[in-house]
Amino acid sequence: MDNLPHIAPLDHLEYMRYALSLARRSPPKRTNFRVGAVLVDEAANRILSTGYTLELPGNTHAEQCALQKYFGADAAGLTEEQSDTVLPAHTVLYTTMEPCQSRSAGNVPCVDRILTTQSGIHQGIQTVYIGVKEPDTFVAANAGQSKLEQAGIVCMHVPGLEEEILQTATEGHRMS
């Protein structure tokens, strides 16, 4: 991955700012939130992969794109189901919006993708840093964070960018 920013270790706000910059690359649409995601090896302070809504073909979400790019490019084409063998032990995920618990378009929910990383010999993603909770626009009362926490994944809110994140996420919703 080229042109990645240098972010100080554990600078959660800067990682979230970077995720927000990725979200702004997503095309504004009425039917999607514009979300950015950054997959990080926290122990090495190394960005593993990035993603944003609709970056890859199909109705793709940011977390889905980051994971698919990592497993496709950096892990010799392994699938997400094989992720336990390739993710560094201290992998975390930064996402501008709470991961989805359900999908209307037939894709696997992002929460399930994150949970899949926990099977096997490594711990997978153990912490998810979240910019904002998902608004009720498309799915009422998204319980993505609750489902992650019930599975033992720590979810941490990163305060400070909520207004910018929501403005970016909903930009396409204001289209006529």
What does this structure look like?
With 176 residues, the protein is of the alpha/beta class. 27% of the residues lie in helices and 17% in strands. The chain is built from 5 helices and 5 strands. The chain has helices at residues 12-23, 62-74, 110-116, 144-150, 162-169, and strands at residues 36-41, 46-52, 91-97, 127-132, 154-157. The longest helix has 13 residues, at 62-74. The radius of gyration is 15 Å and the shape is globular. The relative contact order is 0.18. The mean pLDDT is 87.
Q: What is the structure about, briefly put?
A:
With 176 residues, the protein is an alpha/beta fold. The protein contains 5 helices and 5 strands; from the N terminus they run H-E-E-H-E-H-E-H-E-H.
